[in-house]
Amino acid sequence: MILSLTLLLLCQLAGEIVARAFALPVPGPVVGMALLLAVLALRDRRPGGLPAPLTDGTLERTAKGLLAHLSLLFVPAGAGVIGRLDVLAAHGVALAVALVVSTALALVATVYTFSTVARWTGR
Amino acid sequence: MTGEFALWVFLSRTPLLWLTVTLTAYVIADRISAATGRHPLANPVLHAIWMVGLVLVLTRTPYSVYFEGAQFVHFLLGPATVALAIPLYEHRKTVTRVLVPMLAALAVGSTVALVAGIGTAKLLGVPDPILIALAPKSVTASVAMGITSALGGDPTLTAVLVILTGILGAIMVTPLLDRLGIRDYRARGFAAGLAAHGIGTARAFQVSEVAGTFAGIAMGLNAFLTAVLVPLALALVR
Question: What parts of the sequence cross the membrane (chain B) (predicted)?
Fold first, then answer.
């Protein structure tokens, strides 16, 4: 598990360096995710000689353990929002309406576009 | 009395107390969510944050003191984002098969999230500086705050709007798409991640691993596209 966590951190660190060095508009961890994908593809091409935790499913279990409680990780930032609801003061109602309307429309537009194009392309 | 006070001064200043409060609030919220069969309104993020918020208000604890303990949890957002590569890799055949539908849904969804957000707010008389902070609300907080700062808006307001959007999206996605009769969990997950970033992705993982995988992809792609689209959209409404 420690080895798996180390690999996740290494990918994040490399991702942060790449994102900053090239001033990319995506966050470092997203670049890190792409790097880990590349690592996984390389691993399965040449599985020999790697430490066991990277090939016996430990890495997968560690990653899924983190993702199973993804909600937890938003609690510290979310608790900060409670103390800053005052920034909504002057336009609270208008902003609430805008959030509800645009989020609902975005969900519907995305899901319909996805399923319609998937049907057209026979997928 | 002074002894109790000294204990409180000690506890309130160590990371231990606030880390424990964060985890306890989440465990309670997650239990409620599980007991209701993952009902959308029992969203664990929503209920954990008001519980923590209540403790902070009652104990008059400044957020900065709380965050010194909670930062260890917050930090894990980075490795968790990297970890999205695991389900993505395992479902890579499912994902590459629908590359075209994903890109189409990304272009349409990202534009709708942005235009409907600033369009509705503009109609309701929200002034331009606040529209800047609202525009990137569907994107993960760090990117959204970066977009707002670059355009001269208030990143704190953006952070609040991003979290609220995430919670709203995570609550709305299941009942809304059930009502529309959409059963494709690839499309449903993708919509959740696009409209409601990480909090929508967390919701999608509660429902199915395929939905979560597609939500993670949508979150990453939308961060990139929104960064490009926001300046364009704001130039149009101004």
Answer: 6-29, 41-59, 65-86, 98-119, 157-177, 214-237
A29 and A41 share a domain? yes
Spell out the alpha helix ranges (H) of A46-91: 52-55, 58-68, 75-83
- The structure's pTM equals 0.90
Residue A111 domain boundaries: 72-123
Q: Cβ of A81 and B49 within 8 Å?
A: yes
Residues A43 and A92 in one domain: no
* Same domain, yes or no: A1 and A60: yes
- Chain A neighbors of B81, CB-CB under 8 A: 12, 27, 29-30, 32-33
pLDDT under 70: residue ranges of chain B: 1-2, 238
The ipTM (two decimal places) reads 0.91
Please indicate, yes or no, whether residues A18 and A63 belong to a single structural domain of this protein: yes
A2, with CB counted inside 10 A (0-12, 13-18, 19+), is: exposed
**E strand intervals along A13-77:** none
Residue B1: per-residue pLDDT: 52
